[in-house]
Design the sequence.
C-alpha cells in the first residue's frame, strides 16, 4: 500500500491510500496538520514500527476505511457503482474497526509518547501503558524514521506531496529533494535548517 501525503493549504493536508487490488481511499481534510510532522504521518510510523496491523493503516491495507477515509468520486464514474463500492468498503470498515479497537487506542497512546520523545528525547510517564513495547531501542528507530520523513515533509509547499510505502516506510516519491543531513554518534544530527533543529530551537 502506498500512502500519499499532500499539502492542500497553508494548514491543510490530505492522505490518500493507494491499495493494490482495492479501491483507493482519501481522507480530506486529514486531522492535525503540523509543518514538521502531521498527525497521521506520526500514526503511520508508530503503527508500522510497533506492528499494530489492526490499527488505522493496517485496517486500510486489509480493505477497511478506518472510519475516516472515503472513496473519492471522479469524473465519469458511475454514481450507482460508486455507491455500491462505498457500501462495501463501509461494511468492511466497521468490522475491522471493531476488531482493531484495542490497537487503535494503543496507537493513540504510542503516537503521543513518540511525539513527545521526538520533540525532547525525554521520558514519559505514559510509556508503561504499552507494556514495554516502546523500549529505548524502538524509540530510537521510530525517531530516525520521523527525522527522515519530516526532512521531506517540512519542505513541501502547497500543492506538493510525498508518497510512502506501508509498512516498510520507504519514501517512494516526493515533490522536492530532502534536506541533506549527516550522522554523528548514535542518533542522526540534522543541520540548522532541518525540522529537528527547528524543534530544538522552539523548545529552548
Sequence:
Amino acid at each position: 500500500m502506498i500512502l500519499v501525503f499532500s499539502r492542500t493549504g497553508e494548514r491543510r493536508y490530505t492522505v490518500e491510500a493507494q491499495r493494490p487490488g482495492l479501491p483507493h481511499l482519501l481522507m480530506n481534510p486529514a486531522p492535525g496538520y503540523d509543518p514538521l510532522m502531521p498527525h497521521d504521518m506520526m500514526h503511520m510510523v508508530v503503527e508500522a514500527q510497533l506492528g499494530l496491523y489492526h490499527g488505522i493503516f493496517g485496517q486500510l491495507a486489509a480493505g477497511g476505511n478506518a472510519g475516516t477515509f472515503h472513496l473519492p468520486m471522479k469524473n465519469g464514474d458511475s454514481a450507482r457503482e460508486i455507491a455500491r463500492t462505498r457500501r462495501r468498503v463501509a461494511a468492511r470498515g466497521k468490522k475491522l474497526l471493531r476488531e482493531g479497537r484495542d490497537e487503535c487506542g494503543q496507537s493513540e497512546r504510542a503516537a503521543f509518547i513518540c511525539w513527545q520523545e521526538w520533540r525532547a528525547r525525554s521520558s514519559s510517564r505514559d510509556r508503561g501503558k504499552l507494556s514495554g513495547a516502546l523500549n529505548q531501542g524502538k524509540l530510537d528507530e521510530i525517531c530516525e524514521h520521523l527525522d527522515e520523513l519530516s526532512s521531506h515533509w517540512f519542505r513541501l509547499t502547497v500543492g506538493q506531496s510525498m508518497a510512502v510505502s506501508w509498512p516498510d516506510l520507504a519514501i517512494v516519491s516526493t515533490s522536492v529533494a530532502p534536506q541533506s543531513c549527516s550522522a554523528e554518534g548514535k542518533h542522526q544530527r540534522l543541520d540548522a535548517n532541518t525540522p529537528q533543529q527547528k524543534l530544538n530551537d522552539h523548545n529552548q
In short: Residues 14 and 28 are 5 Å apart (CA to CA). The chain is about 40% helix and 15% strand. The chain has a mean pLDDT of 80. The beta strands are 2-9, 12-18, 25-27, 161-165, 171-174, 182-183, 188-189.
